[in-house]
Amino acid sequence: MGGLAVADLRSADLNSVLAPLNFLVPMAEKPVAYNYEPPPGVPVRTGESEEHQVPIRDARPLIGRLSLDKEGFVLLHHQSAVKNFYDEDEIAAVYYPECERVIKEATGAARVIAFDHIVRNAAMSAKANTIKIPAKRVHNDYTAWSSPMRVRQLMGDEAEKLLKHRYAIINLWRPIRGPVLESPLTLCDAQSLSEKNLIASDLKYPDRTGETYSITYNPDQRYYYFPKMQADEAVLIRCFDSAPEGAARFSAHTGFDDPTSPPDAPPRESLEVRTLVFFTPGT
Length: 283
Known about the structure:
Blueprint: H1 6-9, E1 16-24, E2 32-34, E3 49-58, E4 73-77, H2 88-107, E5 111-121, H3 122-125, E6 131-132, E7 139-140, H4 146-155, H5 159-162, E8 167-175, E9 185-188, E10 198-204, E11 209-215, E12 223-225, E13 233-241, E14 252-255, E15 269-278
C-alpha cells in the first residue's frame, strides 16, 4: 500500500487521548453476567473491574493500512438506505442485507449472514428495553467455544459441514447520528492482544448461555479510535476467526469516556450488527 507500515506509525506522532478503560480484575472463578433480570439475590455481573489510564491513538491516519487479518478492525465508508434505525423491521429488511453485502465485499467471503443487532442510546434506554447504553468495559463478543456453538444454533443441518471450513464472526458498528462525541468506540490492535488476557465469561439469556471474553489489563495492548465518526462511516470488527494462524482470531473493544468530549455532547447513538462469515474451502 506504500508509505509507512502500521507498525512504523505506532511510534510516530499519532494524536492520542489518555482515557480510563475498564478491565476485569483476574479472578479464580469464571465470571458470569446476566442479559436479563437475574433471580433475587443474584448479581447482574460477577467479577470486579479495575480502571487503567490508557493512551488511545487516532487511527484515521492509518485508514487504508489497517487489516481485519492483522489489527482486527477497519473503517469503511457506507451510506445506508435505512430511514429509521430504531425500526426493528426496517433493520431486518433493509440493513441486514446491506451489512451482508458490505462484509462480503470487504472479506471476499462466499456467504455472510446477519443474525443479531444492538441499538445503543443512553437517553432512550430507560424507555425501551430493546435499546441499551454504550458498553464501558473491554470485551470481545465471542469465544473459541461460543463461536461454533452460535453456528450450530443458527445454521441447523448445515452447521457441521460449514464448521469444517474457515468461518468468522464479524460485527459492523456504525453511528446512527454523527459526529460521535460522547462514548466513542475504542478498538484493541489484535496483534497486541495476548490470549492470556482473554477470560471466558458466561453470558446468560433466559433460554441459553453464551460466552464472551472479558479482558484483563496488559500494558502491551494498543488501543485506537476514529474520532468524530459520522453516520456514513462503519467499523468492521473481527470478533472471531476459525483459522488457527494467518489472521487475528480475536479482538477487543469498548466504549470509553473521551476527556476531550464537550460537556454538552449529545448521547452516542450507534448500531452494531453481528454476522456469520463463511469462506470457500481453501481460502
